[in-house]
């Protein structure tokens, strides 16, 4: 090891503990009962009259009070055994860490090195290594069994018909089955329609799947900057992002300590970690794109493959012949990777080395099962440039590269924009599906207007929900600081929650068979004035509770069910009951829209009497409470 | 006057002054040069190389430094002259104000009365009064001329072809013309496809138009609550909401001082004010819906017609025969007006008096040109209940009532939900257009999922953008406090900005011929590192600037164009110039996607040399700045 380290630097402190009224539970899939697939169970209040709700849980052991978190040691490396037991890999002495891997940082500015060095694994020639290769061979891996259980959200079987009938979405050709089996996972991966980003060296991973026939996923970007953040902050940002629901995290660090930062993140990350290797390669040649070489880039890929990065953004579609297509754009080239490669191509007047060496890149990534995230270096940076020839020319090349990577046995997803007005989103999605053979699409937003700096989580959340509905498999978040500065911890949370909303809205609209269960549970809690259940079933119980407490009189908000303001807590239910009783008096309760004159006079008279008995104050008080808690 | 007043209470203080780098300008339409139609001109920095940008301005005189604001006196009543000069109205002694109009408030709890009493106008029989009646008669009113100029956003003529070509949206049958003429406004109103809510007694009004062939509008709800706010706060909330872009404001006050609050708001409101008269009627019978009578309700309508309310939400579609349709809903009836009427119908086992007296309501509202906003009392309160039979049965009745109101000469818009998953939004919109003869639709959100209390401005902003695109004419905002408590001033701003985003995204997607001008101006500013222009062109310059300042080193953010961080400010433009020069060297600059091998070798070689001369550091520094200002 030749890594500069400063042992006096602190070990990162991270946020731990369960979310409000939640506990970690584990599913044990029939196909592999030794697996412990985590879910979060939201515990409802006593008397809720319905079961607790299990929800998808990205947060890892950090929310499990029975686990002692030691960031210095990293998470347990359980998955290494899965990889070893299926064979075809070797442990070897990894690449030597070099000073330039950390931007040649001086010892006083060096971060503390991670406590341990794990020898890397790599695939042996002639053996299956990637999830794609196993899937094609008809082999169901533990990763596949794990994600199948995860996707079912605690269901052990298909929903009853009445519940499944909720799933009346428009899927635009996606085909989310009523229940996810390991075999379905395998078939989707074999088809290239889904990926499990899972470097064989990321032993801390809790596997997850990205594909349009599964739950829509979200990514959170983090990463240090020379000026404003540290290793400590970045590890906490990762833990914080997954606490609120980030399915994967990209480490976009630049500058010094880049290798060490990534090591800390990976060893503590239960979610897939993605990177853009060209960023680190650029640091290794002092930030001069012209000096980039294939050898330098390849060396960086090996470094990151050995660390356990699960997917690489590679801008191999920025071809020399496309660069002039950006000439008349309003915002030119806005992708950092894209402009680095454009500069290299122009300066050398050569085709991109990422394109010319694509076969070698595939061979290398296959050995570690690092997934491709084919980058959109020519993505539009403004509404004006959306869906233009430059963007689509690159997308066509990404389709060509997808097929090459598949032939090599690599898993692939495709990155997308960016800035796209609503009416061009579906066109973009459909073209991606067509050009890239249904490989998963992974988009940044898109932002549906350029006019709201400071609110781009919202401009892009609109586009993200729509493209998720149309078939996008993973949505890369945008925070309120987009275009303005570096996101802090609060911005990360706002970005993640906004994108959880977008992803869930997409799942509902696609007709995911279990998505609406949470909406319904929350709506019932809302209608029955079970305030704490309403908070806890939401994406951000803390904020919901604090907003509620902010407005209500102090005496009142200490009473769990608002009895002090609304009288009997069940009064709103009484209104419904009243309507239900009334409906039952009709001759034919199923008929609709018909005049009732002369058909149910007796029933109405009875109801009128009953209503008067019931006491009208119940009604009124319920109304007052509702009103006081509704936007005026 | 028999109105309790407390003269010791303060006069409301409101926010005044222009937005950053903005000035009020006025268009003078050719058809009526005496009209002064306000616009806000965003002043760009020196050297921007492009003209200042005029934008739609809802903020009234409050942002005009040349006007002295006196809330106690109210805004100038210019529009009274327009109404008088076209005749057909009489001034008369209005209805006597009664103690119950203010909830029988005691003198010590009474708000200060507004300073002046203006005798109301009403229409005379046999004369045209409403904008609809004038439009049908082929008469173009000043209001129509005014809104035509307003909708053109400062354009005096159709855009040049190159700019108009930007408008490549999908309009779903809407037909926004390239340029809005007064005659077009008249024809749309005559057709019932647009309304100008403009009570003849709201003389302070700056008229605006609501219809799907015009800019998408937004509404902000305000209103006092007995516990948490005052007249002062509500007047400021109105001024604050229009400062950020609310096109209309609904006063949903309940409890005491309801008449006085409304008077203060109206006399200071340059935007249309809407109300839900049943709320005040309910206060007049001590909150007991069963005691409501047609006479009491009618008296309340007269009271508010005389004050100058521009549109009334009337839940006349909640018919007795539909109530049982809500029996099996997850969230029953969630509209306050809807549940009041449902209760009344069940208690009396009678058809709703709003339905049985609808003709009389029309006759009354016509006399003052109060527009209908036909309320959706059976709107869904959860994803589970969206687009159900109860909702659609009511919508069909609203269609029937629309035709009655039109026959009576009244302007009409239709309220819509609520909670609707994405895949059901267009179905809802299309049904509204069909059932209601294209009368403008006015929806609350819709919220696209129920699972994010605390973030319902976002869950609903997604739905609002989509339904705006599909044809909804006005979007009623939802604030972060929805379902949890009363919105404060910050919540009002967040709600308004979120909905301005939704409305603008809708305009872009529909292909509004001028909408993209602002996106493009902002994108150019962004790409050229004109930071202050970027902030000022945005919807919320203050927040954009503060986010920017938060992250950047203090020395740097005092330099206007970031020169201290990025070297020459034009360096990012240099990248684009480089690409442009390169493109110019190609034999055929228009060809796309072809290999360039052997076709432009000389050009490439020249460019390579030129690039080396240019100095690579320019490039790099620009990249660093971009990176430092991008989400990591």
From TrEMBL, chains A, B:
Keywords, ordered alphabetically: 4Fe-4S, Iron, Iron-sulfur, Lyase, Metal-binding, S-adenosyl-L-methionine, Thiamine biosynthesis, Zinc
Entry binding sites for [4Fe-4S] cluster: 563, 566, 571
Protein name: Phosphomethylpyrimidine synthase
Listed InterPro entries: ThiC, ThiC-associated_dom, ThiC/Bza_core_dom, ThiC/BzaA/B
Pfam name, any one: ThiC-associated
EC nos: 4.1.99.17
Note accompanying the cofactor annotation: Binds 1 [4Fe-4S] cluster per subunit. The cluster is coordinated with 3 cysteines and an exchangeable S-adenosyl-L-methionine.
Family, similarity comment: Belongs to the ThiC family.
The keyword rRNA-binding belongs to this UniProt entry's keyword annotation: no
Source lineage: Bacteria, Pseudomonadati, Pseudomonadota, Alphaproteobacteria, Hyphomicrobiales
Location of the region described as Disordered in the Swiss-Prot/TrEMBL record: 1-24
Signal peptide: none
Pathways involved: Cofactor biosynthesis; thiamine diphosphate biosynthesis
GO BP terms: thiamine biosynthetic process; thiamine diphosphate biosynthetic process
Catalytic activity: 5-amino-1-(5-phospho-beta-D-ribosyl)imidazole + S-adenosyl-L-methionine = 4-amino-2-methyl-5-(phosphooxymethyl)pyrimidine + CO + 5'-deoxyadenosine + formate + L-methionine + 3 H(+)
Matching NCBIfam families: PRK09284.1, PRK13352.1, thiC
Residues engaged in binding Zn(2+): 419, 483
Record's GO cellular component terms: cytosol
